[in-house]
Amino acid sequence: MGDEKRELPPIPDRLPVTVVDAHTHLDACGAKTAADVAEMVDRAERAGVARVVTVADDLAAARWATEASTWDSRVFAAVAIHPTRTKEFGPAEQSEVERLARGERVVAVGETGLDYYWDYSPHDAQQAAFRWHIDLAKRLGKALMIHDRDAHEDVLRILDEEGAPETVVFHCFSGDEHIARRCVDKGYILSFAGTVTFKNARGLREAARLVPGGQFLAETDAPFLTPHPYRGRPNEPYCTAYTVRFLAQLRGEAVHEVAEAVRTTAERAYRLPA
Fold first, then answer.
1. How far is the C-alpha of 261 from the C-alpha of 267, rounded, in Å?
2. What is the structure's pLDDT at 43?
3. Rounded distance between C-alpha atoms, residue 128 and residue 71, angstroms
4. Which residues 6+ apart lie within 8 Å of 9 measured at CB?
5. What is the pLDDT of residue 193?
6. Which of 44, 74, 119, 190 is the most exposed place for a label (fewest CB within 10 A)?
């Protein structure tokens, strides 16, 4: 059992329509070199996951993600300072994030937001950094990729107070159907990770049922949150295909319809070539 838990899940059959993994961490999955990245994305492409957005949570990861996005045409990047790392977020860090976020293949400012689950950064520091990232996304005209853990009300309040960017993506959406309706009404995009497949995710499943086409994405957040029935094993971008198929079953729609919605929404949100 121990050896099995360390193994990657099997690569599923290829989706009938290619999709985008809207949020992954290739470096945390073990990729270091261009060859590592190509190997990982090759596996994803075998499952019909043709492009990925690799996401940073600190400056070192932001530098790596920005560089990695230039190694392979299937890879794009998002950069920001994760809310749990905002205890020290001053002018030097802000200048570097902004420099990286201006990269041609950086498609989003993220992941930023609020995390009240962990006690690594004070709430006021998180909120100040979140406001700064919102402003950056608006100035650059790029999507805002939100991390929201146990902080729904403050995230929504600050977006209202600051004025949301044109495109807002709730990465690994974790709210219930009531929070989802409020987000949908604002025009925000909800990105569903493997958590929606977990057996105890009733509220999250209800949220995934009600989101209209054009306002939802699929992601892995790899190497975390591997979809059922492989929960607990390492995750990689190809596992997006498991979540897409689950969403189709959950919503009572054809797999190709959900895959098409996921792809076209990612293309629009991140301004990817069609």
1. 10
2. 98
3. 34
4. 226, 227, 230, 233, 235, 239, 242
5. 98
6. 119
| Entry pTM | 0.96
What is the pLDDT at residue 1? 42
Straight-line distance from the first to the last Cα atom of the chain, in angstroms, rounded to the nearest whole number: 43
Residue 70, pLDDT > 50, answer yes
Supply the pLDDT for residue 6. 82
- The pLDDT > 90 percentage for the chain reads 97
Q: Are 145 and 80 in contact (CB under 8 A)?
A: yes
Residue 202, Cβ density class (10 Å: 0-12 exposed, 13-18 middle, ≥19 buried): exposed
The DSSP code for 197 is G
- pLDDT attached to residue 274: 86
Residues with Cβ within 8 Å of residue 23, at least 6 apart in sequence: 53, 55, 78, 110, 111, 145, 171, 172, 191, 193, 217, 219, 220, 221
121, amino acid identity? S
* pLDDT exceeds cutoff 80 at 5: no
Q: In what order do the strands lie in the sheet with 106-115?
A: 19-24, 49-55, 75-79, 106-115, 143-149, 168-170, 189-192, 216-218
